[in-house]
Amino acid sequence: MSIEERDQLIRSICQQVADGTLGMPDAIRRLRVEVTGLNQARFPKMCKISMRALNHLEYGDGNPTLKTLESGVKVFGMRISLPMVS
Fold it and tell me: How far is it, in rounded angstroms, from Cα 86 to Cα 73?
């Protein structure tokens, strides 16, 4: 995958999350699989989170901290933010 294709895929996933058509668990799983190609054993090491934390993120269970969420997306140059609502 080229850098441009990778960037477009990341942007597409972000937009789907922003639109509400893709949940955070599926977004993190897609980023892990489609962008990095890493399995569940290697990806948490890259993000500096535990395997258990990754499972919680990808399956949408538990109550992850903002720090854990940030760690899961930071490797893609992303940040967790809340949109302003008027």
Answer: 27
Q: How distant, in Å, are the alpha carbons of 8, 17, 40, 42, 72 from that of 52? A: 29, 23, 10, 13, 12
> Alpha-carbon distance 4 to 63, whole Å?
34
Sign of CA dihedral 59, 61, 67, 68: negative
Give the count of alpha carbons within 13 A of 10, CB side only: 17
pTM greater than 0.90 (yes/no): no
Ramachandran class of 84: left when φ > 0, alpha when ψ lies in -120 to 50, beta otherwise: beta
Residue 20 burial (CB count, 10 A): 7
Residue 7, pLDDT above cutoff 90: yes
Integer Cα distance of 57 and 83 in angstroms: 21
